[in-house]
Amino acid sequence: MAGNQKRNAAEKEFVFESRLPSFAIPDVDMTLPEFVFDGVEDYADQVAIVDSSDGRKYTYGEFTRLIKNTASGLASVGVKKGDVVCIVLPNVAEYYILVFGILTVGGIFSGCNPYAHSSEIQKQIRSSEAKLIITDPATLAKMTDMNVPIVVAGGEAPSGTVAVETLFRADGSKAPSVSISPDDVCLLPYSSGTTGMPKGVMLTHRNMVANLCQTMGRRQTRFSDDQLISQTVLGLMPFFHIYGICGLGCVGFRSRGTVVVMQRYEIRRLLQVLIDYGVTHAPLVPPIILSLVKNPIVDEFDLKALKLTSIMCASAPLGFGLQQAFQKKFPDIEITQAYGLTEYSCVTMSHSPLVNGMDIKPAKQGSVGCILTGSKLKFVDPDTGRSLPANTHGELCIKGPATMSGYFKNAAATENIIDQDGWLHTGDIGYIDEDGDVFIVERLKELIKIPDDEAGEIPAACVVLKPNSPVKLNEVKEYVNSQISSYKKIRFIESVLEIPKSMSGKILRRTLRDQVALKYRGQTRSLL
Q1: What is the tens place of the pLDDT at every residue in 100-147?
Q2: How many Å apart are CA 272 and CA 318, to the nearest integer?
Q3: Which helix (H) or strand (E) holds 104?
Q4: Where is the AMP-dependent synthetase/ligase domain (predicted)?
Q5: Can you name the CATH fold of 32-40+55-181?
Q6: Residue 507: strand, helix, or coil
């Protein structure tokens, strides 16, 4: 693991840097809200966000006023600098108002999946030591006996809770003046890292602003008109996720774009929203790309009415064949991939950094793009820790200004993922080619995901049963699935005689994955 790897000082280090034009990542001299909304006064009448469920919208002027009100309201209910506030809400227009209100008062935002199992939600609330919960009536029942104050949004607030309107109607001019350092933690998203147990990822204002500067190619933290992009961005990716907060929200607002909120995915609804709101950029995932290519519902719509020009695909590998099929059907829409990590504040590699005026050779299809300016990358042998040359498979390690400060109250897990030289070990196996394009080929993590035509990847499980065991595989599958969120549920389970291991006792994950994937493909084909 990362903390145990040693390297002979005489060995050559193979370290790779970005092929993008070089520039110094600016020294971060402001908080995340200050960076995102710097100079926003000049765009006060422009729409910042609109909720497609009912068309309600907020201009940048209204948005920033409500952020100040929320900061004041949070202070009035006892939130202080350093307090964690856990938001357990679906995508709604007010989500970002609450997030930036928390940060403005010096709090720490921790987003939680509202569709998660109640036990998972409660674990995160306890683990994060949250001092306040913000949720809605539909999710409130999952937080019984938490003994944490609750603010309710999107409906009537039951007795003993606070209505979110109390925050929005507070006097923003009375918000306390809080001294916030760029090195203070501002976000606490939860990630499984390279092992299965979710851990709180401590991200500072400096981390977040640095990663935004890397992603958007910004040489300065102050806003200027040349940074104006003003896209209409689809807000479908979950806002509780780092990509929803940083890659979607912060990038969209800093660029003075308009975010169009969608709460849940449904193909007909998606197409209608894309057309009705003139969406120009959509962050999506492979299963949705597949539906756009193959679902006959798509043909019910006049695709010429789409104003969509670009799609960024992330969170799972996008197959080369699927990418080609999409571009054949939608030749006027550019589709690219990105690779990100919660532990690196969001984006680490991308096909198309949002840099105006750069003449950049496009990354190859099938790759996750190239390293962002300001980051360094190397690939190491998981067994020896030696760095490897180009075109050689190894564990991807990254180093740069956006690396998390650590896991919340978990020094052992932090040491396990960030080595003594500051390299963040991702748990993903990949390589970099001679052109500087990065490819991910498999996972080193204690997790089996096998290829699937619709989802891109699905979770699978291997079970070694004792001789004459009365336990049935379906019983194991049903029990595990009853304890976790829907997207984590085991889709395929297989009984094996033994878990294959190397001479040194390490699990041969690739052998096991290939074995299970072969049986899964055979099963799915037999059903056709």
Answers
A1: 999 999 999 999 999 999 999 999 999 999 999 999 999 999 998 889
A2: 24
A3: helix 95-104
A4: 40-408
A5: Rossmann fold (3.40.50)
A6: strand
